[in-house]
């Protein structure tokens, strides 16, 4: 269940919010005047989230390359690498 807190808690209960974010590895949703305004999370959780987005993007690019037949057999790639290393 998401943790939803008023914006005043950022000022008055920062340490409590920080501990929650680090302990549970999930965001705390901050409201302003009763409306959703921000999501606060630990740096570690943020970096994992961004990493997932980057990985998903790379996987999608790879799948697109396969669909468009813009790939080489692994043996050919390794041969190219070996030839460049021996130069």
Outline the structure in words.
- The protein is an alpha+beta fold.
- It has two domains: 39 residues, YefM-like domain (YefM-like fold), CATH 3.40.1620; 43 residues, no CATH class.
- Helix content is 62%, strand content 17%.
- The chain has four helices and three strands.
- The chain has a three-stranded mixed beta sheet.
- The longest helix is centred in the middle third of the chain and has 25 residues.
- It is elongated and about 65 Å long.
- The model has no long low-confidence stretch (mean pLDDT 95).
Q: What percent of the residues sit in helical stretches (DSSP H or I)?
A: 55-70%
| Rg, alpha carbons | 22 Å
Structural class: alpha+beta
The count of helical stretches stands at 4
Number of strands: 3
Biggest sheet details = 3 strands, mixed
End-to-end CA span:
58 Å
Please state the overall shape, judged from the principal axes of the Cα atoms.
Answer: elongated
Q: What is the total number of structural domains?
A: 2
């Amino acid at each position: 269940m998401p943790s939803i807190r008023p914006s005043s808690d950022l000022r008055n209960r920062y340490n409590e919010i920080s501990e929650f974010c680090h302990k549970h590895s999930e965001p705390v949703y901050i409201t302003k005047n009763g409306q959703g305004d921000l999501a606060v999370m630990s740096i570690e959780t943020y970096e994992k989230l961004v990493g997932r987005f980057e990985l998903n993007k790379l996987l999608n690019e790879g799948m697109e390359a396969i669909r468009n037949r813009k790939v080489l057999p692994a043996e050919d790639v390794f041969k190219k690498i070996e030839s460049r290393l021996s130069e």
